[in-house]
């Protein structure tokens, strides 16, 4: 079983936090999320180039999400006693290769292969980085370290997808993936330079997953995570067609809207992150309420650019706090199994991305843009209800 005690000790209490490696890990999460999410901002041009529907192109997120979801929970057992630093660097380089293959893809099958490679890299990187906060900072600073690590997720929405969308408008969508390939190599180099060795002292075992799941708080946190991520990606994966067709926005205006969404996401991460450290349930319910409300209202606001921007601000600020708040919920529920529960959380999170993009593709191809956003709001609302009646510290299941 992988427990906190089997890992190398975190920073000593009272010692200065290791900010350089924390920022390096944040760059890694930024690179991973930008790579995963880039098709959201480029859905229409990719579809046209490869001669497939928006729904089929959206499956490129499903491919990566499924693989990452299947792989992440088993990361501690799969990588055994290998130093986590070396593993992170190796799989960031694989991520870079996957993005280069995406940029070269002449058809959808090649794109699918590239996304398979990306999913493998994501599964390992997410499975390790999700639990690194407690290893790089001491007790009082764990919440801030974790917030900074997960800021890479929010900043990816600010700089990754919108800048990729702008770059694609100027040089074509392939240029965005070439840029991500370069960024993956740079991220690996930064980790090699700044990250300390991250050894483990005992091999992880598969029964660590079952042990973590027997904790009621962990189980509830994973279920809430699954529902909000499923709901979010049911709608957000297809937000470009909504903005383009229903709101009638140009490519430049869509990129600007996604930038506003991303800026709000960073604000949400740094607002809800510290709150999650003190009151994880409050942070989670606040985040889910905002996502559900914005997704449900956006279909009725497409007649006004100001209203669209308002909905995206609420959506971005709320979803910006989802990663840090749900991961903190799970860590709070079972602090003795940081790596095992974090790997489980990463797997559930990526499963939500995969199933959400798949469900959204089915809905949008059959029922249209308004239905996909309403479905997103409904699923997230179910997650909100579950969070409201649950709590992080729930004891053990019998």
Short description:
The protein is mainly α. It has one domain: Growth Hormone, Chain: A (Up-down Bundle).
Which terms summarize this structure?
398 residues, mainly alpha, Growth Hormone, Chain: A, 78% helix, globular
Compute the number of strand runs. Answer: 0
Q: Main sheet, how many strands, which sense, barrel?
A: none
Helix content: over 70%
Residue fraction in strands: under 5%
**Could you give the order of the helices and strands?**
HHHHHHHHHHHHHHHHHH
Q: What does the overall shape look like?
A: globular
CATH architectural category: Up-down Bundle
Number of self-contained structural domains: 1
CATH topology: Growth Hormone, Chain: A
Q: How large, in whole angstroms, is the Cα Rg?
A: 19 Å
What features would you describe in this structure?
With 398 residues, the protein is mainly alpha-helical. The chain has a single domain, classed as MFS general substrate transporter like domains (Growth Hormone, Chain: A, Up-down Bundle). It contains 18 helices and no strands. Helix 5 (84-104) packs antiparallel against helix 9 (173-194) and helix 11 packs antiparallel against helix 18. The longest helix is centred in the middle third of the chain and has 30 residues, at 142-171. The protein is globular. The chain starts with 18 loop residues before the first helix and ends in a 10-residue tail after the last helix. The relative contact order is 0.18. Residues 1-16 have low confidence and may be disordered.
């Amino acid at each position: 079983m992988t427990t906190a005690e089997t890992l190398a000790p975190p920073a000593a209490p009272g010692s200065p936090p290791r900010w350089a490696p924390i920022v390096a890990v944040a760059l890694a999460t930024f690179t991973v999320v930008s790579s995963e999410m880039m098709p959201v901002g480029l859905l229409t041009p990719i579809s046209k180039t490869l001669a497939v529907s928006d729904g089929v192109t959206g499956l490129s997120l499903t491919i990566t999400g499924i693989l990452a979801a299947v792989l992440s929970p088993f990361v501690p057992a799969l990588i055994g006693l290998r130093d986590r630093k070396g593993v992170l660097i190796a799989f960031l380089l694989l991520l870079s290769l996957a993005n280069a293959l995406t940029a070269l893809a002449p058809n959808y099958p090649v794109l699918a292969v590239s996304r398979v490679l990306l999913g493998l890299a994501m599964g390992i990187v997410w499975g390790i980085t999700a639990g690194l906060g407690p290893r790089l900072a001491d007790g009082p600073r764990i919440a801030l370290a974790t917030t900074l690590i997960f800021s890479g997720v929010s900043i990816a929405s600010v700089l990754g997808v919108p800048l990729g969308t702008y770059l694609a408008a100027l040089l074509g969508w392939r240029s965005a993936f070439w840029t991500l390939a370069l960024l993956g190599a740079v991220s690996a180099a930064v980790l090699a330079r700044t990250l300390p060795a991250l050894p483990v002292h005992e091999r992880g075992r598969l029964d660590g997953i079952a042990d973590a799941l027997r904790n009621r708080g962990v189980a509830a946190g994973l279920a809430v995570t699954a529902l909000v991520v499923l709901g979010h990606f049911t709608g957000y994966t297809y937000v470009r067609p909504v903005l383009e067709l229903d709101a009638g926005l140009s490519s430049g205006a869509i990129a600007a809207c996604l930038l506003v969404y991303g800026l709000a996401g960073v604000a949400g991460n740094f607002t809800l992150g510290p709150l999650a450290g003190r009151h994880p349930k409050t942070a989670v319910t606040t985040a889910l309420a905002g996502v559900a409300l914005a997704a449900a209202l956006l279909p009725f606001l497409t007649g006004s650019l100001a209203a669209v921007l308002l909905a995206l601000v609420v959506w971005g600020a709320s979803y910006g706090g989802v990663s840090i708040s749900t991961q903190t919920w799970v860590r709070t529920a079972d602090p003795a199994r940081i790596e095992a529960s974090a790997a489980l959380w990463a797997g559930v999170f990526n499963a939500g991305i995969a199933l959400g993009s798949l469900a959204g593709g089915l809905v949008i191809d059959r029922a249209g843009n308004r239905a996909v956003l309403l479905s997103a709001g409904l699923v997230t609302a179910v997650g909100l209800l579950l969070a409201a009646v649950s709590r992080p510290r729930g004891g053990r299941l019998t």
